[in-house]
Structures are given as structure tokens and as C-alpha cells.
Amino acid sequence: MTFEGLLPRPVRVTAGQGTLVVNEPPVPTVSTDATLPAEGFRLTVTADGVGIDAADQPGAFYATQALRQLLGPTASRATNIHSGPYVLPCGVVEDWPRFGWRGCLLDVARHFMPKAGVFRFLDLMAAHRLNVLHLHLTDDQGWRIEVPAFPRLTEVGSWRAGSWVGRPPDGTPGHDGRPHGGYYTVEDLREIVAYAAERHITVVPEIDVPGHSQAAIAAYPWLGVTGEPLEVLTRWGVNDNVLAVNDRVVDFYRQVLTHVAEIFPSKVICVGGDEVPTTQWASDPETVAHASDLGLSNVDELRGWFLAQLVAHLESLGRRALAWDDAGPLPRSTIIGAWLSTDAMAAGHDVVLCPEEHVYLDHRQSDHPDEPIPVGYLRTLADVHAYEPLDGPQVLGAQAQVWTEHLDNPRRVDYAAFPRLAAFAEVVWSHGKGDYTEFAARLVRHHLPRLDALGVEYRPLAGAHPWQTRPGVPGRPRHL
User: Fold this and answer.
1) How high is the pLDDT of residue 127?
2) Would the N or C end of the chain have less CB density within 10 A of its end CB?
């Protein structure tokens, strides 16, 4: 192994003379160097051993990840099966991240991922020095967090009767008729948070309101505008069934968010706010009257009023709200997830960059007719590597998104996320624009063998394996 195989690309490598030859993985000496940037490290390999100088605990952890890469692919396996000595090049690696927020959203609402799968995803994030897991816990199609005060949220809201398969223009979606669901207990979530913290990953929970809320309405119909019983939604897309925006519903979600804050120590909690049709509000006399009583010019402004109540509540708990950029005007303290534009920066908001056209990893990876699920933009590995985030004091960082409407199990998540997530990790960690040809060569020669050792079923660069194409994944079978 050589220093050339490191991924993400390091800030600086100074090659030394000779090699370190050891029969067991070396145990480095670790010391603190406050002159290094946050999360930074200096990894020194000499013929006598390995030393780590780190700015902080995350920096020391990332140094060990770099050392593991230098030890070769077998070091990424679950147990030591290496034979013969380890040979490491002598030299010094100095490295630190470009952005403080290097995240990935994992949607467990559309398709539930059992706890073990979340642990594995966290391991893969840690191997790529990503440090924020944005956990999308609620949506129209499922409620995944236990709230003991409101047991029907999981008793009813965590299960749906089935799921759409396929997607236009790939044909009219069919319904699989197969119940789907699951949820995390309070203990499960505390365990996930602790597991992530050991890997220096912050879990940012999302409770999406006032749209994308039909699972909650199915559990408690009075949360909806009409008050009529609904089922947990079985299709994808934007949905007209939104929350009622009154004081009783606000109080309900205050209680939910207080519970969320008790589980998740993250300084940031996401309240969603995206894709909220106002059709039901406009046709409901009580909602129209409520908007008038508040002095609002129309019912559309109720979304901002509703979210502002929750933003203020989170601030009373010592937390900060994150909302998507189409949520409308919000208090300036709100962090904005910029998936459509960066206009929020002009209004003084801090932003996390997550543009749909660049880093939505559920989007298709080729236009080949066998590519599973023709979703969204065509975004290849090269496209993700070419993404150039904005810099500036209001940019906290960036995150990729793994939405799971069409990713119904960890194997499908692997296919969609990797190796594109490896390219994204390099974009948000490494400084300066990298060369794709050099990246691809490094990926194939050094990093794909690591993913193989980790058991990741990534998409091969030459195209999908036969078992990764339709009809072997949720999509329009060829015979339809």
C-alpha cells in the first residue's frame, strides 16, 4: 500500500525513506496538537512505529481511518485474516476537512431500515470521514420513532398496506400489496446515537411537518385538516393531506419535539417544512379564519407561522432548527437545507448544501434501459465528483441524500450510494478541485477493494451486475 491510495485525498503527504514492517497492525502513539485545524491530524510513519498528532478526538479517529487504509483492504474486514507482515511506507500525512458538516441523509420513513442496517451505514460513513447522519424519521409513508405519550404513532403510523413499485415514465406504478413497516424504540434510538457518537457522527433527527405527515394523521385523524380517517400512504410524491395548523396541533408537535430532544443530543433538529400543498387549508373555513385572526394575508403564510412556533420551541430547549429551503420565511436562526436554491443565504441564514441536481443519490446512474428506477436527474460518479460546493461563512457544509422510495433494503441502498458517496466524501473533505481521472484510478485500484472487504454491494463502474437490474429490484418488471 502507498500514500496514493488514501481517500479522501489528503491535504499534504511528505514521503519518507524506507518502510515500517510489522507482524500485527501497529498501535500508534497519540498526542494533541492544538495548532492543527479542527478534526485535523498528522499521521507519521517511521521505521520505528506510527505516531498521531491530532487537533481533537475526531482528528485522532480520522487518523486511525487513514492508517487502516494504509494497512490494505484486509484491515477493512470484520476480523483479522491478514497473512504475513504489514508493510507501510514511511512518511507524514497531514490532513483536515474542508467543511465541518459532512453529512448524508438516510430516509428510513419510506422504507424502514432495521437497526443493524443503520449501524452498518454508520460504519460506512465513518470509513469515509462523514460526520452527520440526517435521519429522516417521519413521512406520509411511515412514522419510525416511538413516542410513548402517543402510542398510535407507531401502532398505526409505522405500517402501511403496501408500496408503489415502478415510476413514470417507466410505466404506471403498480402496487405490491405487501405490508411494510417498522419503527425504532426509544432504546434503539439511544443505541444508534451512542454508536454514531463513538464514530464521531452526529445524528440529526427529522420530524417532517406540516406536509409529509399522513402517517401521523392516520394515527390521530384530528391532526389533519378534515379530521377524517386516513390510511398510511402507499404511494410516493407530494400529498394534499397535510396537518391542521392550529394551536392544538402545534402543542402536539411541541411534545413530540421535546421527546426527540431527550433522545438526540444533536444541537440541530430538522422540522422539514418542504412540499406543503395548501389546497385543504384554503377550502377549510376554520383554517381561513385562523389565518385572518393571525393577521396573515393568506393561508399560504400559515406554514411559516406553524414552523416558527416549533423553531421557537426548539430554541427554548437549547436546540436549533433545520428546515428545507422551500419552507418559506423563517426566523434567521433556522438553518436551511438548500436543496432547491441558496437564496436563504441572502436572508442571513446558515445553510447546509444538498442540491437535488448534484447529490441526490437515489437518482439514476445511467440511461441504460436496465438501470433500476429512472428517478430524477442522471448523476454519474463523475458528476458527483465534479460537484463544487459554495464556500463562505454561512455555509456549514454539505450533505448527500439517500431517499428510499425505491430502495427497499440495504442492498439497494448500497447500489445507490456507492461508490458515489465515496466521491461526495472526497468533495466535502478534501481541499481544492480534484482530478476525476486520478480519483477514478485511485478508487478502482485501492478503494473498491476496501468496499469489497466491507461487503458493500456498490454499482460497478462498468454498469450494474445482472442481479442489480430490473426486474430484480423494485421497479417495473419487463413483462408489464
Assistant:
1) 98
2) C
Q: Where are the beta strands (DSSP E) in 96-231?
A: 101-107, 132-136, 138-139, 142-143, 159-160, 164-165, 174-175, 180-181, 202-209
Separation of alpha carbons 322 and 273, rounded Å: 9
Mark whether 67 and 162 lie in a shared domain. Answer: no
Phi, psi of 232 (to 5 degrees): -60, 130
Radius of gyration of the chain (CA): 23
Average pLDDT for residues 272-297, to the nearest whole number?
97
Q: What is the span of the domain harbouring residue 60?
A: 3-95
CATH number of the domain bearing residue 414: 3.20.20.80
468 falls within a domain: no
- Give catalytic residue positions: 275
Q: Helices 247-263 and 302-316: crossing angle, nearest 10°?
A: 40
3-state secondary structure of 160: strand
Shared domain for 169 and 306, answered yes or no, is: yes
| Tens-place pLDDT, residues 360-418 | 999 999 988 888 877 888 999 999 999 999 999 999 999 999 999 989 999 999 999 99
Q: 398: which 3 cell numbers?
A: 454539505
Average pLDDT, the chain: 94
For 153, residues 6+ apart whose C-beta sits below 8 A from its C-beta are: 143, 145, 146, 147, 215, 216, 219, 220
Confidence band of 474 (pLDDT split at 50, 70, 90): low
DSSP 143: E
Give the model confidence (pLDDT) of 247-262 as tens digits.
999 999 999 999 999 9
Cβ partners under 8 Å of residue 374, min gap 6: 167, 169, 170, 364, 367
Q: Could you give the number of structural domains in the chain?
A: 2
pLDDT tens sequence across 318-331? 999 999 999 989 99
> 274 with 340, same domain?
yes
Domain boundary among 47, 80, 95: 95
- Which of 144-153, 158-167, 286-295, 365-374 has the weakest average pLDDT? 365-374
pLDDT digits (tens, 9 = 90+) for 328-362: 899 999 999 999 999 999 999 999 999 999 999 99
**Which of 460, 450, 401, 461 is CA-nearest to residue 127?**
450
- Classified as helix, coil or strand, 335 is strand
- Residue 369 vs residues 144, 364, 374, 478: alpha-carbon distances, Å: 34, 11, 9, 10
Give the distance, in angstroms, between the CA of residue 377 and the centroid of all CA atoms in the same chain: 18
Asked if 60 and 168 sit in the same domain, the reply is no
Q: What is the CB neighbour count within 10 angstroms for residue 129?
A: 25
Q: Which residues contact 204 (CB under 8 A, 6 or more apart)?
A: 103, 132, 133, 134, 135, 264, 266, 268, 269, 270, 322
Residues 59 and 105 in one domain: no
